[in-house]
Amino acid sequence: MTELFLQNGHLSDEGLQALIDGTLDELQRLEAAEHLSFCDECLTRYTALLTGDVLEEPEQDVTLPVMRRLRRRAVKSAWNRYAAAAAAVVITAGLWYSGVFGGAMEALAIQPPALEQTAQAQEPGPLGQLLERIGVADGGEPARPDNGLGPEHRPANVHQLDDPEEAGPDEPDDTENGGLGQWLSQLINRQDN
Predict the structure, then answer these.
(1) Separation between Cα atoms, residue 143 and residue 147, nearest integer Å
(2) Which residues contact residue 50 at a Cβ distance below 8 angstroms, ignoring those fewer than 6 apart?
(3) Is-contact 134 150, C-beta < 8 A?
(4) 3-state secondary structure string, the chain?
(5) pTM, to two decimals
(6) Where is this region: Disordered (predicted)?
């Protein structure tokens, strides 16, 4: 039976090798696993022994055949792309010269004037009616200073002054100390009352 632990409490090299080989009984394996769970030095030695195994070498070198196969696939893929592009060009040219696209192009060339004529014959929509109402449909200035939105379209609490000099006592005065803030607070107080 191999000595599992050394005098200093660490696992011996023979014990670590027996653990790797699987020749320890169940109790010894549990003791070694418990020791490896808290001893970093033994765990480092154990992993060094595990990674020290020699990797199996392939019977023959596979690098050259694999590289040849990859190169053949790349060339075949490039030829397939060029062949697909050439086929698309040939099909498109054949359809173009046969007149398949010619009729559609002529129909498109005729349609825009027809659309303009029907658009001129139609009545103006809501926006056109509004522009006619305020007098700017022909590109001129509006006929009314309020852009056609008369008093019937304004909220009840909005008042329009014809002359800026006619500001009433409720209007803000920029020369006072309060300015706009004081005027807003007075307006809010009036609405609360």
Answers:
(1) 7
(2) 20
(3) no
(4) CCCCECCCCCECHHHHHHHHHCCCCHHHHHHHHHHHHHCHHHHHHHHHHHHCCCCCCCCCCCHHHHHHHHHHHHHHHHHHHHHHHHHHHHHHHHHHHHCHHHHHHHHHHHHHHHHHHHHHHCCCCHHHHHHHHHCCCCCCCCCCCCCCCCHHHCCCCCCCCCCHHHCCCCCCCCCCCCHHHHHHHHHHHHHHC
(5) 0.28
(6) 137-193
Q: How does pLDDT run along the chain (193 residues), one tens digit per residue?
A: 568 888 888 888 888 888 888 888 899 899 999 999 999 999 988 888 888 766 677 678 888 889 999 999 999 999 999 999 999 999 998 888 887 776 655 655 555 555 555 555 566 667 777 777 666 656 555 555 555 556 666 556 655 555 555 555 555 444 455 667 777 777 787 777 6
* 45: number of Cβ within 10 Å: 17
What is the residue type of 182?
Answer: Q
Cβ atoms of residues 160 and 154 within 8 Å: yes
Question: In DSSP terms, which residues pair with 11 in a beta bridge?
Answer: 5
Sign of the dihedral defined by the CA atoms of residues 130, 133, 137, 139, in that order: negative
